[in-house]
Amino acid sequence: MLRRSAPNARTTPEATSATEVASGVCGAVRGPGGRVGLSAHAYHRAMTARLYDLDSTWSLPDGVDAVWDVIADPRLDWAAWWPGCTAAKPVEHADEHADDDGGRSREARLLASTATFDFRASLGYTLRISFHATRVERLREVAFDAGEDLSGTGAVRLAPRADGGTDVVIGWQVRPVRRWMAVLSPVAAPLFTRAHHAMMRRGEDGLRDHLAARRRAADETARGG
Fold it and tell me: According to the model, what pLDDT value does residue 129 have?
């Protein structure tokens, strides 16, 4: 858990009010009866959530086709291969045919789907994040809107390498929605950023293992086993 030595701040962010933490982080004024509260400037500073511009690159040995088949699967079953990720609720579909072929392309079905996941961070907290694809370029890119505990946009871009592998470049431009994260961002942003990169490394490792298992299964099938 994050800890901050400051007046009127408890050590567990989830159990701490915005006023208590921000009074220690951003400055406070003492009103009648000795009650501590935020000045208007301090409150605005505390509640204006920081924009996080985060980039990660996953280097995978598999080709673009194989990586795309998982990343752009309209079932959005990321929890099956991403450690620390669980489905918060069933995938939502904008129409009744989004979860089956129905004569539509995978890309069209992906655009009609929204998934919501719970990600367990290395610092002990859980982030609930929704993903809704807004633009899909087959074998190249999926752009998405993020919601729930984060608000913003992102993109997953696939780049083939000369050795036959694929680099997956993932960018996020998001602001925290949860109040305690918004308040702590002025001082805890480096910790939140490290927790994000740790989460992304787990995703890279999980996807690499998942793709390897698919290759082994395909080889066994080809051998008739």
Answer: 98
